[in-house]
Amino acid sequence: MRMKPRQFESRCTLNKVHLVLSEQQRLNPFWSQPATLSLLGKGPRFIPKAGSLSTTEVLGACARLNYRMVRAFERYVKRQEYECKDAIRREEGIQQWTPKQRSLSTEYCRTYVTRFFKCVEENGVWNGNQFLSPCFDRHIRTIERDIVAAATCAKKTLTARHRWPNITRAEQSVIQRLLEFDVGYDNADKNYGAVVSSKELFKEQCLMHLEDGKGTYCKTADKSREDILEEILSRLRLILIPFKKQGEGWKQVVESIIMI
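Above: the chain sequence. Below: its structure as tokens.
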């Protein structure tokens, strides 16, 4: 297998590459070579050589899949409750807001699924709704077992000699040469292509933003991380508390952001 499925679906080549280099680095012909531009144009997320997924990675993916299926079951059972909440928000003129999804750990997903089927919570969705899918827990275990078996079989079948790199020899040499330069490589803001930047210039720009003379940022060297977070949380509470009195819809929105 030449590349992972995620890489195959999202691969892009010959993208625009922005070079933000010092004057001395710009004079180096290395940055204008076809192999260099070809490699950098693939983007920072490009995987030069796909590796086999370990059993731990497969089990982690299964845990997240099980979590999503359980959450889908909960949304189905509580669909009328969600519809009622949506109606209240529409009446209050509140636009739908979806917070940025945080990455869930494998342990969290496993614990969530286990507590769901054991009906740890008295008002748990599985408690009293097993008839909607009597074999739900059994099917989840079967799916996980089949996925692990298929991944193990593929790993044994596709030996190392059947795994080719996704780049040419010239591009492999470029990777080794890049390690000699004091540069960074990442996606541009708003995803406007890849950026190769001099670390020295990058640090200078960061300091210019921090010390803009407008008081945008303040130094917090004398405060601990806990003190800073507590101060931010206190300010957020002061902003959100008044909105809880604006109706049931606003109250639900506030409580979904932070428990007050």
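Residues 5-51+161-210 form one domain.
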